[in-house]
Write a structure and sequence with these properties.
Layout (H helix, E strand, L loop, with lengths): L1 E11 L4 E5 L5 E5 L5 E4 L3 E3 L9 E9 L2 E10 L6
Length: about 80
Amino acid sequence: ASKVVGDVGLLDLEKNYMILVTKDGKLVTLDFDAKTKATQINPTPAKMADVGLGSSAVVQYTKAGDKNIATNLEFKPAKGGD
C-alpha cells in the first residue's frame, strides 16, 4: 500500500472519490467505498461523510489499474469548523 499526505480539496460522496492536495500542490484522486476506514485523529471512528474540505489527511491506498483506491484515511478536521 502507498501513503499520501495532504488536505482534502474535494470529497464527492455520490461518486465515492476525493481529491487530496499535497504540500507541493500535487492533486491526488482517490476512490473509496464502504470498506474504506476513516479515523479522526482524536482518534474517533468516523465516516467518509465526516471528512470536511480542508481537512488534513493521511490516506493509505492501493493501485487498481489506473485508479487509486483508498483503504484507510486519518484526518484532522479543518480549523474553524467543529
